[in-house]
Design brief:
The chain has one domain (4-179). The longest helix is centred in the last third of the chain and has 28 residues, at 152-179. By secondary structure, the protein is mainly α. The chain is globular. It contains 6 helices and 2 strands; from the N terminus they run αααααββα. The chain has helices spanning 4-21, 32-42, 48-56, 70-87, 92-109, 152-179; strands at 111-112, 141-142. The chain starts with a helix and ends with a helix.
Length: 180
């Protein structure tokens, strides 16, 4: 799967784009604290690694199944909506939560062993309806070997920065231009 860098940057890109469509989000400052929280939120599906390790002693057994589905993204959105009712948060927070977790699902769907016009590893994004991973016809992100993280993961994270950082910058510039 992709690194936390890719997931965090895509979460930030989704959040920046969503700020333009949901006026309630503009109440929140575009501060480093908010962006860090957004990047962490976009990585929520990968917490299955910790749960898998703690419950089963192997970090890979639960990874990439239920928590990497659109159903899970919907459950996170429902939890944000439910919590937001007591805090009087705008409903748009739950929509953005769904989009951030969904961005994680899509990035992992586009992750594979070799970049280019090669099938991806696939993702079980339609779980529990379809439990088998569905592959994308193209690989945009190179997957990390969880058995041997260094130095491979550092190179992969650098590639993700090269691919995604310009997208985040362009979205931010576009939003800034719309606001002026």
């Amino acid at each position: 799967m992709a690194t936390t860098v890719a997931h965090g940057l895509m979460g930030i890109a989704v959040y920046c784009a969503a700020r333009e469509y949901f006026p309630a989000l503009k109440q929140l400052p575009l501060s480093p604290k908010i962006l860090i929280l957004v990047a962490i939120a976009a990585n929520i599906p990968d917490f299955d690694i910790v749960v898998s390790f703690l419950l089963l002693g192997d970090h890979k057994l639960l990874h990439g199944v239920g928590s990497h589905s659109f159903l899970f993204a919907m459950l996170v959105a429902v939890m944000v909506f439910w919590r937001g009712r007591t805090q009087q948060w705008p409903y748009s927070f739950s929509i953005v939560a769904f989009l951030m977790v969904s961005s994680h699902v899509v990035v992992d769907w586009l992750t594979g062993p070799k970049l280019g016009l090669y099938s991806s590893h696939g993702s079980a994004f339609l779980w529990p309806l379809i439990e088998t991973p569905i592959s994308a016809p193209v690989t945009i992100f190179k997957g990390v070997n969880h058995n041997d993280l260094l130095p491979d993961a550092l190179y992969i994270a650098l590639w993700e920065l090269v691919i995604i950082a310009p997208i985040v910058i362009l979205i931010s510039l576009f939003i800034k231009k719309l606001n002026h």
